[in-house]
């Protein structure tokens, strides 16, 4: 009879082979920087599969909606405002009770599809949570846009939302108040997340900076699914990303989230992500010295960690990448590491049997890059600050 380790070793046979892109290893002496061997410190960025779709094109500003074709993973079909008009934000003010044309809130709550862009650099301090309507893109390319020092973004009971190229930080809880035309009724407020995704589908969060919020940086809860979170820069926060509402909310079994090409940078404690019930494909992310753990969960989620670059902290009690929020009955959970790289004594505790492949559709599917390329393909995580008329 085969040993019990055989299914564990073979269960990921359906995963893609490593990318055919090649990069030379450094021949320098093997010194270290932030616990990372020097040969993995990139001299210049490389384009990952999402960025290669649009960043090399100097005409991106005249064909902004083409960005909607560039997502991969479970959020691939998020069209945002692809089929709508361009809406220009010229006014950084905010009036939740009577939104003015030219403000971000006015565009975000309209019923028709809109591709929202910004006429200039601006810091937007929202007076209450910004509740998105369906078929909207917030596209910060060409300007430096911050949502900060107030309530932030809520994506609730909608579909087809893209948020790209903005900074969201120092978010505060929202007050009870009126809602948008598509969310009739009196809102009870929000907890202070940077982005809350609630009972929504086809959402793509890309190239954003997220930090220092009252609650989480990104929450995906209450039966949300078809989500991609990519190319973002996370820093200076405790509970980073929650996938799944509670251990009792079984509707989250439908949840499927792709987390790709992100930098989980300095000052992060835990939940990168923390998962309940659903499926998370965590692929080609760079992790820099978490304070407690990197990937956690409860309620029997399925997690595939593929081609990630893990650098553990110096704390000898925080070397483990994984944390199960349960003391027993977790060995059957499908948590798997495939082609990851581990540094400074980082380690991943696998569990479970059977296939762990994401089973993407042909249009969602992409090839994970080799883990040694991750520092280069995540080097430009966060907003790009593109210049009109030039490639990004």
UniProtKB/TrEMBL annotation:
Entry's localization field: Secreted, Cell wall
Domain of life: Eukaryota
UniProt keywords, alphabetically: Calcium, Cell wall, Lyase, Metal-binding, Secreted, Signal
Pathway annotation: Glycan metabolism; pectin degradation; 2-dehydro-3-deoxy-D-gluconate from pectin: step 2/5
GO molecular function annotation: metal ion binding; pectate lyase activity
Pfam families attached to this UniProt entry: Pectate_lyase_4 (PF00544)
The keyword Cell membrane is assigned to this record: no
BP-aspect Gene Ontology terms: pectin catabolic process
Entry cofactors: Ca(2+)
EC number: 4.2.2.2
InterPro entries: AmbAllergen, Pec_lyase, Pectin_lyas_fold, Pectin_lyase_fold/virulence, PEL
Domain Pectate lyase as annotated: residue spans: 121-316
The keyword Ubl conjugation belongs to this UniProt entry's keyword annotation: no
Cofactor binding notes: Binds 1 Ca(2+) ion. Required for its activity.
Catalytically driven reaction(s): Eliminative cleavage of (1->4)-alpha-D-galacturonan to give oligosaccharides with 4-deoxy-alpha-D-galact-4-enuronosyl groups at their non-reducing ends
Main location: secreted
Signal peptide per UniProt: 1-24
Similarity comment: Belongs to the polysaccharide lyase 1 family.
Protein name per UniProt: Pectate lyase
